[in-house]
Amino acid sequence: MVDILPPKKEITDPRVHFITANIDEFVAPPASYDRIIMTCVLHHLPEPIATLSAINSWLKPGGLFTLFLPSDPGILNRINRKVTVNRRATKYGFENYEFVNAIEHRNHYWGLKVQIMNVFGDCKIKRWYYPFRIPLAGFSLFSIWHISIPK
User: What is the DSSP string of 5-50?
Assistant: First the structure.
């Protein structure tokens, strides 16, 4: 696992290694991982295609990349943010949440989708959309991607 924050609990599974680092600065040898899981990161990166290309190189043949990708700025995400997240942020004293979100979410779903498809074009890609199974990002909150690297 790579995260900018250290883990809150000790990781006891010997198969899992935790590294405190920024993913867009992380370096690993080629073909060194069987599985990579990424959640809620691509919207924030200055150069997501560079990180995606690195992930592609880090996976072993037959490896799996699982990606949790919010459908931002889809309609359901905007409604959810307006009805729940913005209110909760204000309640807890977080001012200018919408402004900070606009700055932090510099990459939108549709641009990221094209970049992912380009970097992993030779891979088997499966996507699931939630909460509805309709394959339209604008009408989902997020999608889960399973990208299988060819053997």
Answer: S--SS----TT---EES-GGG----TT-EEEEEEES-GGG-S-HHH
Helix (H, G, I), strand (E, B) or coil at 148: strand
Residue count of the chain: 151
Angle at which helices 48-58 and 109-119 pack, to 10 degrees?
A: 40
Residues 64 and 149 sit within 8 Å (Cβ to Cβ): yes
Q: State pLDDT tens for residues 33-92.
A: 999 999 999 999 999 999 999 999 999 999 999 999 999 988 988 898 889 888 888 889
The residue type at 8: K
Cα 70-21-44 angle, rounded to 5 deg: 30
Six token digits for residue 129: 């959309």
User: What is the C-alpha to C-alpha distance for residues 82 and 100, in angstroms, rounded to an integer?
Assistant: 14
Quote the pTM value.
0.88
As given in the structure block, the two tokens for residue 4 are 């900018």
Of 147, 94, 28, 25, whose CA–CA distance to 17 is shortest? Answer: 28
